[in-house]
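User: Working on a comparison across species. This one is Methylthioribose-1-phosphate isomerase from Nitrococcus mobilis Nb-231. Can you predict its structure so I can line it up against the others?
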Amino acid sequence: MEHDTVRALHWTGETLVLLDQRRLPHEIQYKECASAADVADAIQTMIVRGAPAIGIAAAYGAALAVRQHADPAKREAELQYLAQARPTAANLHWALQRMRAKLANGADAETMAAEACRVHAEDVRANHYMGQLGMGYFTVKGAVLTHCNTGSLATGGYGTALGVIRAAYAAGRVSCVYVDETRPWLQGARLTAWELQQEGIPVRLLVDAAAAALLRLESVRWVVVGADRVAANGDVANKIGTYGLALAAKAQGIGFMVVAPGSTLDFATVDGDAIRVEQRDPDEVLAFGGQLLAPAGVTAWNPVFDITPAELVDVLVTERGAVERPNRERMAALRA
Ligand SMILES: CSC[C@@H](O)[C@@H](O)C(=O)COP(=O)(O)O
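Assistant: Here's the predicted structure for Methylthioribose-1-phosphate isomerase from Nitrococcus mobilis Nb-231:
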């Protein structure tokens, strides 16, 4: 098994230590979470981000709630606080549901922590499996384009879309990785470029607005992205800008691959229209590094995810298998 360059989360046995992703790549700082509320705040403020990593953090948060409180009402309040940290990533609710089931069976703090560690380890295993499965589609060596950060930092380790790219690069099937900078948080520029550089994988950064031109002018074989939630019909919620990439890929006849673990699949949500898309503070768009970019008084629209209709997805890769051109019927094969 290949090594992972970095870990976003570390369980000490008593606390959860998170690599502060807001400060990367130039500062390595950690945030120690001793309570569920600390974890919820870390998710809300993007110290930890990426759907699978959010789910894993929430699982550890639930273990901390049980360690901290004997009173079921207080535990419940902590779990609800965690559940509200961010709305779009399905993994958050999936993880809390799994931890609640343990709790309902009378689990103590130690058993809860062991379950959270299992959630974490299973995610890493799923990523390695998806890496192998996904790279099977890269039949000709070439360049790929990815968006946001879906690597070790966004998951328990290794990555979803970036896991496929890493596996494919190791197998000699990727020549270069184009990375969208991913405004406004710059997950591509700050995090993905950093992860790829550490691996020695050739990386070229582009502004988000250059992606369609890249697909038209350069020979890119696949666009590979992750997901925050996949609805029962295969519609995909992912970082804002993903829908535009899918449209451009379709227009150019370039493959569009989505890579996501089972914990991101939401069969209770009928389609993308029913997915709640998080809106964040307009200041994330209007200012940068504390410096106002736009004229004072201008407002901004800041949805942080968009919905890509299933018909634009060529293949959805999960650890339960891969589905080509997902629709409601084909998605059924991925039910747990
Ligand atoms: C494996 S991560 C998949 C998605 O979570 C990722 O593409 C993404 O959109 C992350 O958004 P973020 O706002 O950084 O949490």
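For your comparison, note: The chain has a mean pLDDT of 97.

User: Helpful, thanks.
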